Amino acid sequence: GDSVTQMEGPVTLSEEAFLTINCTYTATGYPSLFWYVQYPGEGLQLLLKATKADDKGSNKGFEATYRKETTSFHLEKGSVQVSDSAVYFCALSDRNGGSQGNLIFGKGTKLSVKP
Amino acid sequence: ETGVTQTPRHLVMGMTNKKSLKCEQHLGHNAMYWYKQSAKKPLELMFVYNFKEQTENNSVPSRFSPECPNSSHLFLHLHTLQPEDSALYLCASSQDPQRGRQETQYFGPGTRLLVL
Question: What is the pLDDT of residues B58-101, one digit of tens each?
Fold first, then answer.
């Protein structure tokens, strides 16, 4: 079945450092890909998404490019801030078995940014 | 403010108790979802409702019973739970399930459940 694998955390960075969180997926067909973020004590919020190969999603300085050839959707940010500390989830949409639009999540990567 | 609210935010219950979790969405969406988030595990989809009809039950034990009286409200009734059911339960909604894979889901803040 479809699955998402993302790098194990936690990731600890200093403010203004470059961030990469790796995400790879296995899917039949052509899924949409998402990054969600969960701040402490809150639910998940959509950070960005891409719906087809070579699309780049971007929001709040974060970017991710849908790479079909490497089945990847790595999250990047050039300069992280303390306020970016959160758990980041990579996800894909699941179209199998008639379950249109359901999401399959990775395990999440916790990011801590130190001042 | 995500437009999806959940109550209570925290719940402690014994294994013989009966309780209910409530979710309400103010976004005019037609699909609602229950997820379970446990430590060290991916989010697990539990139930999906489209236009008030249950379209997915992801092999969830019968001690979890969902109810969707209308497109804006979703409940999860709990009875005779086990300690391993302790987790964060997240509700989500999306606009139109027929849009399929492009659909974005909007999440509530979750209910943190502890079963003693």
Answer: 789 999 999 999 989 999 999 999 999 999 999 999 887 665 55
For residue A60, give the DSSP letter.
T
Which chain B residue lies closest to A39 (C-alpha atoms)? Answer: B109
- What's the angle, vertex CA A54, arms to CA A53 and CA A56, rounded to 5? 115
pLDDT in tens, B17-49: 899 999 999 999 989 999 999 987 888 999 999
Dihedral (Cα; A93, B90, B36, A22), 10-degree rounding: 50
Tell me which residue has tokens 């739970």. B81
- Determine the pLDDT at residue B102: 58
Considering only CB atoms, A102 lies closest to which of B48, B99, B108, namely B48
Structure tokens that stand for B83 in this block: 């300690």
Three-class SS of residue B11?
A: strand
Rounded-to-10 torsion of CA A40, A41, A42, A44 = 60
Query: Which residue from B39, B41, B35, B38 is spatially nearest to B23, judged by alpha carbons?
Result: B35
Q: Which of A85, A89, A50 is nearest to A71 (CA)?
A: A50
